[in-house]
Automatic annotation (TrEMBL), chains A, B, C, D:
This is Methylthioribulose-1-phosphate dehydratase. The gene is mtnB. Zn(2+) binds at residues 96, 98. It catalyses: 5-(methylsulfanyl)-D-ribulose 1-phosphate = 5-methylsulfanyl-2,3-dioxopentyl phosphate + H2O. GO terms for molecular function: aldehyde-lyase activity; methylthioribulose 1-phosphate dehydratase activity; zinc ion binding. It comes from Hydrocarboniphaga effusa AP103. SUPFAM superfamilies: AraD/HMP-PK domain-like. It comes from the Bacteria. Keywords: Amino-acid biosynthesis, Lyase, Metal-binding, Methionine biosynthesis, Zinc. InterPro entries: Aldolase_class_II_sugar_metab, Aldolase_II/adducin_N, Aldolase_II/adducin_N_sf, MethylthioRu-1-P_deHdtase_MtnB.
Length: 202, 202, 202, 202
């Protein structure tokens, strides 16, 4: 495996093991990618358990989602990764997780407002806890192309540090796999807080 | 240990370690099996902790539950495994788990309806999240033969991707140990969601 | 370390690692022992973290709690272990855990009734899930001798498979460390169920 | 790495791994330090994940927070560590964690009262469970100097075994890293109990 690929692969393998330990990538849920260049990415292949990835679990695809090796099948949500890389060239990695907290909140709300958390500072463009962000929730859709355009249209209107798909999970990103992973950790932490707050507020 | 046996044994040992880490096989709870042929299966022996299995924890039995080595004692729920293999010859593995979520839901409801979860796609014959499945709950019974016939009678009437026994746990299956394990992960995830939803809906 | 001691020590070290992973022995909470003979036991020394035990963490004491090596200090709850060994000579190990669930239930109730759980079969003298047991809760007391006599007086009147100390934790036992550990796992599982049931029943 | 430094570094690395496994140091949350002398400390550098520390993750600073190696950047909350070391010369380690329970309680209350827990005995100056302590909650502030003085002013008036910052986390300490870590474990355990009690009391 080339050096270009082995570093992001190694970081995504480690992220998958952590997310699996947390219960955020059940079964074959979730998928991960890292940008290799202006028009290529490394992305998890279809059907792998994200807690048990190895080097052969990844494939190289262009930003239309076409694998370089046509005999391989990319994760069926590849186009959602492409959308982020194409929308923002500073994005170096996109990670999708599937936790109990993000599933329940995304089934209940059309948008999640996060305010007053120190961990907000992990999100892009936020320098203080004394801020609020809205994480939009998109309706789930098996037509990924259509879902990707809906996300894209919304991103053009409103800046977002991440988004949720109802009953399906979180998409978050960063300039590196490490930064994207830290944002996933911060967001999942705040989602768990929001869910338990809800259990208390009733 | 023959190659025929070592592969499914290895996969069940790994599944047991994962389920133990999750708290889904407390004490000696749970049991696992894999089909070896049209009329033989490999199944966990009685009394083992499912998080601490090794090759000697399994025995070969026929689909009436009789061990090939009559000196060994199969898990006392062996007949529930036999029922599934005999009912559907495409089933290659049956896994039984015992989680807090499946215990509480199975004590409370006569059937669990799962709808709107992306993970439903892991279950047999479901291609979209926009579906609903019913997981039946059977009353617990120390007479396993009688319980197995009740399950069998119900399966003849209604297709089910898995079932619960009240206060006792989940039975799920697949064509391989890996697929059965992924379905257990998906179902336990949705059960945990349902239980927390319940805590929120009150 | 003699063979007589190394086997139970090894089993208690492993039990401690599991209980720590579960969060059942926070800080220096919990303590473990195993009977060596009719009048001697191996017990955890004072002040050790139960998830980080090694061979030097144990000492030999008589059933009055006096260490053979008078320079060592036994766990300050040693007399509670002595009480169980003296009350029932079939007991080979006593394990004390300190979980969130057993702490909250023991602060709230004077006795915990467990019924309809398959895991009840792990407890002494129960052959079916269709049974109920009462786990008594004793008021906490820094005078361990007085607490031990209160437990002893109650045991003479009522059989119990285990007991709780309010805000302090669970004492459970078995003929071996393995059996005692399985009973702890079963009881902690049922306590967690009871606590979440409570959250749902409100 | 000198022996003076390698021991506390090793203990903080292990504490970080435990806290990460518990979910108490999400993303780059938390920070740890150990006193090296009357006027020097070893503290985690800025930006590290506290579950993935190695020897290079620490730097030596004086008790004004100035790194000996001016090319390095200390954790931005360094002054909160300095405040504790300067206030109490018996303190040998300060650990800051960021759990769901301490975040939710610190957002909700101005002070957390802990009473009737056996684990209270882990806290300084408490010899029995039959006691109560108040853990003060300070409003979060990105001006760490100002926050540190507010903490210092309060400490002069009221003894406290630890404190919380709203939406941000716990600061606890002890004479050694081990003792500070045990107090964190005990406090996080009691916070989780308080949070679940709250869910039950509603």
């Amino acid at each position: 495996m080339s050096l270009e690929i082995s570093r992001p692969a190694r970081d995504m393998i480690a992220a998958g093991q952590l997310f699996h330990q947390r219960g955020w990538v059940p079964a074959t849920g979730g998928n991960f990618s890292a940008r290799l260049s202006s028009d290529r990415m490394l992305i998890t292949a279809s059907g792998w358990h994200k807690g048990e990835l190895d080097d052969s679990a990844f494939l190289v695809a262009d930003l239309d989602g076409a694998p370089e090796d046509r005999s391989r099948k990319a994760s069926y949500e590849t186009l959602l990764h492409c959308q982020v890389y194409r929308f923002d060239e500073s994005v170096g990695s996109v990670l999708h997780t599937h936790s109990v907290a993000n599933t329940l909140l995304s089934r209940r709300y059309e948008s999640i407002r996060l305010a007053g958390y120190e961990l907000l500072k992990l999100l892009p463009g936020i320098a203080t806890h004394d801020a609020a962000v809205e994480i939009p929730v998109f309706e789930n859709d098996q037509d990924i192309q259509r879902l990707a355009s809906r996300v894209n249209d919304h991103m053009k209107k409103v800046a977002m540090p991440a988004y949720l798909i109802a009953g399906h999970g979180l998409y978050a990103w960063g300039s590196t796999v490490a930064q994207a992973r830290h944002r996933v950790e911060a967001l999942e932490f705040m989602f768990e807080c929001e869910l338990r707050e809800l259990e208390n507020k009733r």
